[in-house]
Design a protein that fits this description.
This is Nucleoside-diphosphate-sugar epimerase. It comes from Shimia abyssi. By secondary structure, the protein is an alpha/beta fold. It has eight helices and 15 strands. The chain has a single domain, classed as Rossmann fold. Strand 1, helix 1 and strand 2 form a beta-alpha-beta unit. Helix 2 packs parallel to helix 3 and helix 6 crosses helix 8. The radius of gyration is 19 Å and the shape is globular.
């Protein structure tokens, strides 16, 4: 980071992923950079440096101007909620405007591996995109809006980086949803005609926090971060192995016609920036990371 240690602003600190990162980085941020946490409403607790405003209705607090180096935008609408998925585009544009007003040099947006659709072989960042879900199409619409800004931006505007994130244990619908809620009924998992279940590119929450810390540092020190970056552990995992590692009670169900068995992303570019270890790819380690944060 630069010598003045300007802060990182995390938008969406009250979301499922934001809460996990808050537990990793803590109230004061990391040893590398201090963090300011944003929420639309009240903060998680009294610890930490929090600000609150509605991105779609208000501008950022004036007290932040000139003190933010990088914005990490976690704000978004996920499947199964009450909000329209198309809001992902508007929220990303609002986050970009906030970064511009604050004088930030960089803004990272969370996109999703869902923009790729499906596929057993890893998708790299340069392929054509064919999302098959409404969520994937909404995230692609968001990406296009951000990339259109990037193509016309002048050097004084914040540099945009899109992170196509795989599933994060604890922030996903499987472990962070059904398992974390302790559903009274068994967790049900799709089983496909070959007898196997879904396979996805995953990452543990602590490992993700470490990856993000490296990227946030590199953004300030090395201006050459790519505009789009896949983020996950290098080896995909079966979702049934995650359920077994979590100790949850579960059973198979027949996969529907629209169910996706494989979605794997290629993280070769990321692996050149972050040194993954074999344990980062192990389902039991990913679940241990989530449980450690859940017990904190």
């Amino acid at each position: 980071m630069t010598a003045d240690r300007k802060k990182v602003l995390v938008l969406g600190g009250r979301g499922r992923l934001g809460r996990l990162l808050f537990r990793v980085w803590g109230a004061v941020g990391t040893s590398s950079f201090p963090v300011i946490w944003h929420s639309r409403r009240s903060p998680i607790d009294d610890s930490g440096d929090w600000v609150a405003w509605d991105l779609l209705k208000q501008g950022p607090p004036t007290c932040l101007k000139g003190g933010i180096n990088t914005v990490l935008n976690l704000v978004g609408v996920v499947p199964g909620g009450k909000q329209d998925l198309s809001l992902n585009r508007e929220l990303a544009l609002a986050a970009t405007e906030a970064a511009r007003v604050l004088g930030a040099r960089h803004i990272f947006h969370l996109s999703s591996a869902a923009v790729y659709g499906d596929g057993k072989f890893g998708w790299h960042e340069g392929v054509e995109l064919y999302p098959v879900s409404e969520y994937g199409r909404a995230k692609l619409d968001m990406e296009r809006a951000i990339l259109s800004l990037t193509s016309s931006a002048n050097p004084s505007e914040p540099r945009q980086v899109l992170l196509r994130l795989g599933n994060v244990v604890g922030a996903d619908q499987l472990i962070g949803g059904a398992v974390a809620r302790g559903a009274e009924s068994l967790v049900q998992l799709d089983q496909f005609p070959d007898g196997l279940g879904p396979v996805r590119s995953y990452i543990g929450p602590v490992t993700l926090a470490d990856v993000l810390q490296v990227l946030l540092q590199r953004a300030s020190c090395v201006p050459g971060l790519p505009p789009i970056l896949n983020v996950a552990a290098p080896v995909p995992v079966s979702m049934d192995s995650l359920l077994d590692a979590s100790g949850a009670a579960w059973r198979w169900r027949c996969a529907g016609e629209e169910a996706i068995q494989y979605l794997r992303i290629d993280v070769s570019v990321l692996s050149g920036l972050f040194s993954f270890l074999p344990r980062h790819c192990q389902p039991d380690q990913m679940v241990r990371e989530w449980k450690r944060l859940s017990d904190a």
